[in-house]
Amino acid sequence: MSQPPRRVIVGISGASGAVYGARLLQALQDMPNVESHLVVSDAGWRNLRHELDMDRASVEALADVVHDLANVGASIASGSFAAHGMVVAPCSMRTLAAVAHGLADNLLTRAADVVLKERRRLVLMVRESPLHLVHLRNMATVTEMGGIVCPPMPAFYQRPTSVGEIVDHSVARVLDLLGLEHALAPQWQGLPLDS
């Protein structure tokens, strides 16, 4: 018997860094037996257009299933939906705050709330700088709830030669956190002691 697909929910909210969500969807598309479910906030759609020149149809084509932000009755809003995990890429401070305080006021934040309550993997690629105290407290709260705060940080030890390689490294870290095999970025092999 074939295994059921691993369902990964991808949320794209309104922080800068829409490329992380789009690249994550592309990577999931290339994985056998993975089914992606996409939900995008209104500001997320705006940033996808502004930062990547991607229209709605182009983004939706990257996902297996697309859910409307207002449809809090969608499948991903229920704990009975067997999700492998969820990634919000990028995650705005507004979305972080809503998740930290259980404000399931749209499908993106409701799906994140469900993933947490079902003790599944939630990864938030938070994007903001500098951070004030409420941002930090919200990150601590989500961490205490079992979520993973994973800001997309450049890994210069990998000696990237393009923005694409920097993006791929951050997306690769997220895939690692989900336990999904990939070939986006090399694993660190360490440095010799004499370097």
Tell me what you see in this structure.
The protein starts with 5 loop residues before the first strand and ends in a 17-residue tail after the last helix. Helices cover 38% and strands 17% of the residues. Strands 3-2-1-4-5-6 form a 6-stranded parallel β-sheet, with helices on both faces. The chain is globular. It contains 7 helices and 6 strands. The protein is of the alpha/beta class.
Low confidence ranges: none
What structural class do you assign from the helix and strand content? alpha/beta
What percent strand? 15-25%
**Order of SSEs:** EHEHHEEHHEHEH
Describe the oligomeric state of these chains in a short phrase: single chain
User: Helical residue percent?
Assistant: 25-40%
Mean pLDDT value: 96
- Please report the number of helical segments: 7
The biggest beta sheet reads:
6 strands, parallel
Strands side by side in the biggest sheet = 3-2-1-4-5-6
Radius of gyration, whole Å:
16 Å
In whole angstroms, the N-to-C terminal distance is 51 Å
Shape: globular
Tally of DSSP β-strands? 6
